Amino acid sequence: MIATLERYLPDLVILGTAISLFSLLAVLLAVPWAVARLPQDYFTDPRDEFLHFVPGPAGMLLVILKNLLGLLLAVLGFIMLFTPGQGLLTLLAGLLLMDFPGKYRLECALARRRKVLEALNWMRRRRGLPPFDPPAD
């Protein structure tokens, strides 16, 4: 069994590196795009907590695909916490893609951290958008 693992180890390292680089690129492109699409009052305007989608079969399919992509990123992020890669960033991106109870509270709690809100507002400034209204304590 160990001989078999040693035989495939170089391929596993290459695959892990490719997944890590792909997830980094995906997160670097998707996060600024998503932050730019959020309204300025996103963290101050109370929201429904769960499942926002367009009614009908196409809308439900998009919600399912979005949640599956989020789950995949969350699992890959968790794996990358223990292997080389951007585990925390990928895990966070996956969680924010998924729909689950308490997600909005989690987003507001993260945005209450000064450095996180500064980073989000920096991304918005680069696109010529106004900064987010800070969430209430």
Can you put this structure into words, describing what you see?
This protein is mostly helical and 137 residues long. The chain has five helices and no strands. It is globular and about 60 Å long. The relative contact order is 0.15. The model has no long low-confidence stretch (mean pLDDT 81).
Contiguous low-pLDDT stretches (5 residues minimum) are none
Give the DSSP E fraction (strand runs of 2 or more residues). under 5%
- What is the count of DSSP helices, taking H or I runs of 4+ residues? 5
Report the average pLDDT across residues.
81
Percentage of helical residues? 55-70%
Q: What characteristic shape results from the CA principal axes?
A: globular
- Give the N-terminus to C-terminus distance in angstroms: 55 Å
Total strands: 0
